[in-house]
Design brief:
The complex is a heterotrimer of chains A (225), B (437) and C (66). Chain A has 225 residues and is mainly α. Chain A is built from eight helices and no strands. Chain B folds into three domains: 200 residues, NADH-ubiquinone oxidoreductase 51kDa subunit (Rossmann fold, 3-Layer(aba) Sandwich), CATH 3.40.50.11540; 73 residues, Ubiquitin-like (UB roll) (Roll), CATH 3.10.20.600; 95 residues, NADH-ubiquinone oxidoreductase 51kDa subunit, iron-sulphur binding domain (de novo design (two linked rop proteins), Up-down Bundle). Chain B has a five-stranded mixed beta sheet. Chain B has a four-stranded parallel beta sheet with strand order 3-2-1-4, with helices on both faces. The longest helix of chain B has 18 residues. The chains are: A mainly alpha (225), B alpha/beta (437), C alpha+beta (66).
């Protein structure tokens, strides 16, 4: 892709905006995935109230969608290369950079499904909502691949490091979440677990602990998100 | 309004008991004996009639909740009409309360009455499928015999709706309506949250009627002899007879059919003031003997001491046992039987059990009783089912009734001299998901 | 048209966002689970009640029309 960068014209502005909003969208999506993982483990952000984790997860996801929309619209509007609007959601519909843009379309499709089902959550069954929401775990890596393959920006310098950092953080966070989940006590064993922890007759005598001190906080029900 | 129908025997069964249990002692009634005694199953062919009769009779559920039977059937019928879906009827013979034996006894001795009731209930709500849900571990043969009974009825064309036998896992919650439905749907026998009620949306999304086995047996007799007959025993507000499981200090438990309103002392004998009686099983209430001697077996009377008839379980431990220690063991069992789905129950019941054990072994601290009271309050009404509520009621009644014993234990003593367990408590607890399936 | 709060105790994981957003009607017990005031929601708190329902990550908190 040859580009004459000497002249600033509207086409170039659009193209640059598309690249910039693409990077921001990737960063926001990364943050959303991390926050989502945090919600599933009922984690907290230091210094923030509990509702902030869910709140941020939702709000950032909506902002991310806005940035993706800008990213797509500016790329389509830009007249230098012809990208039909349909290519935003139909993979392989663009004659330009067919495969890499196709990845973007796949990711966007998945994202739309996740967002729409979440907005309509109250009217959907839990299983349906959850099943679709899990597609986010597919959407993000596809978006990342789209970013790396479509944009030479992300293949050099600082942006490359940024892209790698995003991938690293998400992979580590997912591994953390899986490890934590594997330590969760299955429902049928929760009561037995707590009973064993409580029924040490000696511990009550020796530690003089108030019985309601959260020394062994009962396994809370793991969220199913 | 309705009269005895279909060639019921001439013998006057009006006020004499037993009605459900066979007269000839412990011999199970097979099909012929059943027919000889009760006559043919009186299908109504106009289902609404039966519901009217049940309303006039004032039959309430005999599974413990005492919910008016006609209202449950109406709810299912209405839901079926509104949603245009055929309902399912389920005879609940799970009897998951360890101290209760009456449903198992009824299913052993008079299964055809229960099966009659099941058919009538199915007809009344327009069901096309029926299930008999029981726990067959108790008596080795009962599963096979029930299968035989069903086959007999099919062979003579007595049943209009096919009846499936289903096995309940040996969990305390197995008999809970939503847990029952959850299990029949292929999952673990753990409760689900209502709304919607299962009468509205239950098994496979169909309106579901879950009725205690004994209640269905009463229905089968009301259909034959009418509501006025049913009301000839019992009290005006609480009519009819019921099956009780009575565990007295001297011998093995016995199941008796008694009229509601019967004085407790006729059932449990004359007890000295130092004794206590557990009314209603492990979700029931400990009542001091002095009070119990003045009470009758009906909710109006028992309300005075905060007790309910429930499923008719009456237990009087012998004086040489420590009822407090027995209660602690029972509460431990109840905690282990929690489904572990709801935070307050999961957290509260084990702590309550541990605290009660502390008291029983003489290691209570200054806050133990205050903690128990607080936890009992915290778990009540905050679960998906009434398991925590019932447990809390049981515990509170023990704290009140055995206050003197608690004080003794605090000083390191105990009035019990025998360590042999009196309250029946299953040894095996649920360890894995399999144990709930 | 009054509404009441209802929590599904099976879905509730004790996240605690609801109690933060509607402390007037939702308290937390010593184990982190909500104690919900089941009385009709006063008009002044309706917005906060909706926020609390919306903030629940497991959709355990619901509004029931009564």
């Amino acid at each position: 892709m040859l580009r004459d960068v000497s002249g600033i014209n509207s086409s170039t502005a659009l193209w640059y905006t598309s690249r910039a909003t693409g990077v921001v969208a990737l960063l926001l999506m990364t943050a959303v995935v991390l926050l989502g993982l945090l919600v599933t483990r009922q984690g907290r952000l230091p210094g923030l109230p509990r509702f902030a984790v869910t709140g941020l997860h939702r709000n950032l996801s909506l902002i991310a969608v806005v940035f993706v929309a800008l990213h797509v619209l500016t790329a389509v509007a830009d007249s230098y290369v012809h990208i039909p609007l349909t290519a935003a959601v139909i993979p392989l519909a663009s004659p330009y950079e067919r495969l890499w843009l196709g990845l973007g379309a796949v990711s966007l499709d998945l994202t739309i499904a996740v967002v729409v089902t979440s907005l309509l959550r109250r009217h959907l069954s839990r299983r349906l909502w959850r099943g679709v929401h899990l597609l986010a775990y597919a959407s993000w890596p596809v978006a990342w691949l789209h970013s790396i393959t479509s944009s030479p920006d992300l293949r050099h310098g600082a942006l490359f490091l940024l892209a790698v950092a995003c991938a690293l953080v998400v992979v580590l966070a997912v591994l953390w979440r899986l490890a934590a989940a594997s330590r969760d006590v299955p429902r049928a064993e929760r009561v037995g677990h707590l009973m064993s922890a409580l029924h040490h007759p000696m511990s009550a005598l020796h530690h003089h602990r108030a019985p309601n001190a959260p020394q062994s906080r009962a396994p809370e029900r793991a969220s199913r998100l | 309004m309705t009269t005895a129908t279909h060639g019921a025997p001439a013998e006057d069964t009006a006020t004499s008991l037993p009605r459900l249990l066979p007269r000839s002692g412990q011999h199970p009634e097979d099909w012929h004996a059943h027919m000889a005694r009760h006559g043919r199953l009186p299908y109504r062919d106009r289902p609404g009639d039966l519901i009217l009769d049940l309303s006039a009779a004032g039959l309430t559920g005999r599974g413990g909740a005492a919910f008016p039977a006609h209202r449950k059937l109406s709810a299912v019928l209405d839901a079926a009409d509104k949603r245009r879906r055929p309902p399912v009827v389920i005879a609940n013979g799970a009897e998951s309360e360890p101290a209760s034996d009456k449903d198992a006894t009824l299913l052993w001795l008079a299964p055809h009455l229960v099966l009659d009731g099941l058919q009538l209930a199915a007809e009344a709500v327009g069901a096309e499928a029926a299930i008999l849900y029981t726990h067959t571990d108790r008596r080795n043969d009962v599963g096979r015999r029930l299968g035989q009974a069903i086959a007999e009825r099919v062979a003579v064309g007595a049943d209009r709706v096919p009846v499936q036998l289903a096995e309940a896992p040996p969990r305390f919650l197995s008999g809970q309506e939503t847990a029952l439905v959850s299990h029949l749907a292929g999952g673990p026998a753990i409760p689900t949250f209502m709304p919607p009620r299962i009468t509205e949306r239950g098994l496979a999304g169909a309106p579901t009627l879950v009725q205690n086995a004994e209640t269905l047996a009463h229905m089968a007799l009301i259909a034959r002899h009418g509501p006025r007959w049913f009301r000839q025993v019992g009290t005006t507000a609480e009519p009819g007879s019921m099956l009780c499981t009575i565990r007295r200090a001297d011998g093995t438990p016995r199941v008796a059919e008694v009229p509601l309103g019967m004085p407790l002392r006729s059932l449990i004998g004359d007890l000295g003031p130092d004794r206590a009686v557990l009314i209603g099983g492990y979700h029931g209430t400990w009542v001091p003997a002095a009070d119990a001697m003045r009470l009758t077996l009906d909710n109006a009377s028992l309300a005075a001491v905060g007790a309910r008839v429930g499923a008719g379980i009456l237990i009087t431990p012998p004086p040489d046992r420590c009822a407090l220690t027995e209660t602690a063991a029972a509460v431990r069992y109840l905690a282990l039987e929690s489904a572990g789905q709801c935070g307050p129950c999961l957290n509260g019941l084990p702590r309550i059990a541990a605290a009660l054990t502390e008291i029983a072994v003489g290691r209570q601290r200054r806050q133990t009783q205050a903690d128990l009271e607080r936890w009992a309050g915290l778990v009540t009404g905050r679960g998906a089912c009434h398991h925590p509520d019932g447990t809390a009621r049981f515990v509170r009644s023990a704290l009140i009734t055995f206050a003197a014993e608690i004080e003794l234990h605090r000083r390191g003593r105990c009035s019990g001299t025998s360590r042999k367990a009196f309250l029946p408590i299953p040894r095996d607890s649920a360890r894995t998901e399999e144990d709930w399936m | 048209m009054s509404e009441k709060l209802l929590v599904n105790p099976i879905e509730c994981a004790g996240h605690g966002a609801c109690a933060e957003l509607l402390p007037e009607m939702i308290a937390m017990d010593e184990w982190g689970y909500p104690i919900v005031d089941g009385r009709p929601i006063p008009p002044a708190l309706e917005r906060d009640a909706r926020a609390a329902v919306s903030a629940c990550p497991t959709l355990a908190l619901r509004l029931l029309r009564s």
